[in-house]
Amino acid sequence: xxxxxxxxxxxxxxxxxxxxxxxxxxxxxxxxxxxxxxxxxxxxxxxxxxxxxxxxxxxxxxxxxxxxxxxxxxxxxxxxxxxxxxxxxxxxxxxxxxxxxxxxxxxxxxxxxxxxxxxxxxxxxxxxxxxxxxxxxxxxxxxxxxxxxxxxxxxxxxxxxxxxxxxxxxxxxxxxxxxxxxxxxxxxxxxxxxxxxxxxxxxxxxxxxxxxxxxxxxxxxx
Length: 222
Description:
The protein is of the alpha/beta class. It is built from ten helices and eight strands. The mean pLDDT is 94. Keywords: Lyase.
């Protein structure tokens, strides 16, 4: 996906009704020795980092349970859409663990330190509406009979992104992701570098021409 220029947006959904991702298999984990557990979690953390580093926008469609590593997967995405009936939580402390695939870092950046500490310390599960009220998800929707309401809303969101200039969207994502980690002056410099990469693109010229000619732009990702 990273190197496929035809890919504009990636939507993560589950094929299992009622479950987005239920997290690690603790029965499997119980059979591992300490070294194996450490290696397993390191690989899982690396996977989440790879998802977070995808150059195109990513959307998690949470139509059911997103627990532990399942919520960490959703947090690794840029945007999250949840059904009202979804259940989310970093429940690791209820099993004698702590989040190890990015949850302790991405949740505070998403909802703030105080709420993140409360959710992680208690291992509490919240529904889609609660998640929306605290900014954990971008949208919450009533669940439908097919059980894919969040996925349908995620597709609608993806279709809003699709017509936009691909390189500009990628550079916007890069500027936000890198800039949020530094002071604002450094962030401005990062924005400037990303903007400079977009200036020579044919899509920028097309955007200007379309505006002048009062027509919809036809972006090609070049």
